[in-house]
Amino acid sequence: MSQDASQPTVSTTPFEWIGGEAKVRELVDRFYDLMDLEPVYKELREAHGNTLEDARQKLFWFLCGWLGGPDYYQERFGHPRLRMRHMPFSIGIKERDQWVACMDQAMGETGVPEDLRERLNQSFMGTADWMRNR
């Protein structure tokens, strides 16, 4: 019986399932490009300041490790402490929803397998909701 290519094997990490570093980079780049281009993500974009380059790189490093690949973020900065690191930013329901919607759109546009996309959306929503500070 052959395995469906869209389904991971038991030992496959989400990092491997998504397609490794190149695919994570593509996803992160599309996420920030959409944030910059789409008016529906206006508040989310405004929260990021003048440039997205630092955030773009840090999200790439973070997602690589979070998805089960190389732990670039922790090697550079230690434990992510996401909530603490995001406290200076005003994050409410609108920003949470825009972040998750932007990431979902980026996953769709970069061809993240649907089963993985659904699982990641659940995780992203839980984390984004936990990050709210207003």
Protein model, in words:
The chain is built from eight helices and no strands. With 134 residues, it is mainly alpha-helical. α2 packs antiparallel against α4 (53-66), α2 (20-37) packs across α7 and α7 (93-109) packs antiparallel against α8. 22% of the residues are buried.
Q: Short summary of the structure?
A:
The protein is an all-alpha fold and 134 residues long. It is 66% helix and 0% strand.
List keywords for this structure.
single chain, 134 residues, mainly alpha, globular
How are the SSEs placed, and which strands pair?
Layout: H1 14-18, H2 20-37, H3 42-46, H4 53-66, H5 72-77, H6 82-86, H7 93-109, H8 114-131
- Number of helices, counting only DSSP H or I runs of 4 residues or more: 8
| Major beta sheet summary | none
Structural Rg: 15 Å
Which outline best applies?
globular
* Series of H and E elements: HHHHHHHH
Helical content class: 55-70%
Name the structural class.
mainly alpha
Q: What is the number of beta strands?
A: 0
Ends apart, CA distance between termini: 51 Å
Mean pLDDT: 93
Strand proportion, as a percent range, falls in under 5%
What are the low-pLDDT stretches, counting only 5+ consecutive residues below 50?
Answer: none
